[in-house]
Amino acid sequence: MNDSNLPKRLNPTIRPSRRAPGFLAWLVALVVGAQVHAAEPAAAPAAAPQRVALETSQGRIVVELRADKAPKSVANFIQYVNDGFYDGTIFHRVISGFMIQGGGFTAAMVQKPTRPPVASEGNNGLKNVRGALAMARTSDPNSATAQFFINVVDNAFLDYPGRDGFGYTVFGNVVEGMDVVDKIRAVPTGGGDVPRETILIKSARIAK
Question: Which CATH architecture describes the domain 51-206?
Fold first, then answer.
């Protein structure tokens, strides 16, 4: 509010005149308007994107999540992180010219039980480019649970609509540790693209 718009002095002994009601109405409107303006809440700052740190046997990978684009997938992933679900799981499928996949099996190759699946959010504008984090699923587009994969090359054929009309949901991207991802993609594999050495996810935590 600009103080230059206010009278310099309000004299309590001013006598009523024909102009007084109009002046008082103007003054009341000015004060009420100022109070309403002051009561308006300031715009909330945009929330910083969440990041998750995966501490693996090959090093640290940090992913930034895109809740603005894939809110259900991010909420699902964060819940598994907060539950400690990924601790002690492995990257169980590695294809050097494609992706690395993990988050569902223990080091003994026992598949862990999961919560119900989340609906596909593949049509969100995010692409399966190198470093993109996406939900793994079966042929059913709405079958994603805990498993995820990191694209190690651009995989445009996975983008919406893909080959099945849905594509694969991207919900984040690697912001630190792509060199670790490349170390993992280079490990020798056996049948089923399973690494011959255990690639352990020691922990998954919200990054501070």
Answer: Beta Barrel (2.40)
